[in-house]
Amino acid sequence: EVQLVESGGGLVQPGGSLRLSCAASGFIFRDYLMYWVRQAPGKGLEWVSYITTLNDRRYADSVKGRFTISRDNAKNTLYLQMNDLKTEDTAVYYCATGSDGTGRGQGTQVTVSS
C-alpha cells in the first residue's frame, strides 16, 4: 500500500524559503515517477513539479526558477526546495504518484504572508 507523509510546511514571509519532505513507504520508491501537487484555498489540485526515475525534472511555469524537486532513493524521500515564495504559493502541498494527486498523503500547509 502506497503511503506518503509530507512535512516541512509552515508560515513564511514573501521572499522566504521552505523545504518540503515526503517520506514514502509501501512501494518501490526508486521505480516511480514522483509528483508534487498543491491545492490553494477554494481551488482544485494543481501540478507543481515531477521527477522521473532518471532524475529528469519538470516544473509548472508558475514555480519555474524558484522551486527545485529532488529525491533520495536510499532514504525513500522526495523533496521540494521552495525559494522566493509568493503569496500565491499558499496552499496545501502533497506528494503523489500521479499528476492528479493519486496516492497523496495528508499534505503539509504552506502559508506565505507578511
In words, what does this structure look like?
Helices cover 0% and strands 48% of the residues. It is built from no helices and ten strands. Strand 7 (67-72) and strand 8 (77-82) form a beta hairpin. The termini are far apart.
Brief overview:
By secondary structure, the chain is an all-beta fold. 0% of the residues lie in helices and 48% in strands.
Name the poorly predicted regions. Answer: none
Mean pLDDT: 97
Radius of gyration: 13 Å
Shape: globular
Please report the total strand number as a whole number. 10
Tell me the span between the first and last alpha carbons.
Answer: 40 Å
Biggest sheet strand order reads: 2-10-9-4-5-6
**Major beta sheet summary:** 6 strands, mixed
Using brief descriptors, characterize the structure shown.
single chain; 114 residues; mainly beta; six-stranded mixed beta sheet; four-stranded antiparallel beta sheet; 10 strands; globular
Write the layout of secondary structure elements.
Blueprint: E1 3-7, E2 10-12, E3 18-25, E4 34-39, E5 45-51, E6 57-59, E7 67-72, E8 77-82, E9 91-96, E10 108-112
